[in-house]
Amino acid sequence: MKYIQKSQPPQDFIDWKNSANKDWQPSWGNFQKPEKTLVHKSLLQEQGFICCYCGRRIILADSHIEHFRPRNKYPDLQLDYGNLIASCEIDTDEPPPIPVHCGHRKGAWHEENLTVSPLESNCANFFRYTEDGQIIANKEIDKKEAAKTTIEKLDLNIHKLRKMRKAAIEGILDGLDLTDSQTVQKLIQGFSKPDLDGGYEEFCQVIIYILKQYSR
After folding, report:
1. CA–CA separation, 18 vs 78, rounded Å?
2. Strand ranges for the chain from DSSP E
């Protein structure tokens, strides 16, 4: 999981909400194009085009707007830009594609003390990764139960994601001289920054974690 630093919402979205009157009130039910698309694009850009939970690369066509705090439990936050993030797997009225994970798997679940938020600046510290692609709770932190529960509730350890993370790790480690600390440090710095198009490498936080184990 990578920290998401929220930006300002699109001005058109602000104007749309401010157009409320006695006969019409903005709601998630009437939140449609073009404002919804503008918000979706803004979320993708501020996240560097990776899923808010698993870190997969995402685009408009294969992701959806996720409410970190579910709108059925927190109706006052349904149009709060600070509560909106972009998750992988397309938004659909039909059952989401199998296997289900991340935002669709989380659904309406949210427990304040057992949920790790990508909006927390230190969220990456709650998790560890293994070279075979597993994500595990960091037992050295106070919120290890929250990390463990978040992994389970979002199904972040399903075979599909483990396989993808393993492939990403192997793609970096293959042929790399891990005793060359200077090269390893340069790679860590590179994966910590977005590319020229503003996108992060898929599973960049996983790769950074693994590389740091060799830079100690």
Report:
1. 15
2. 63-67, 84-88, 127-129, 135-137
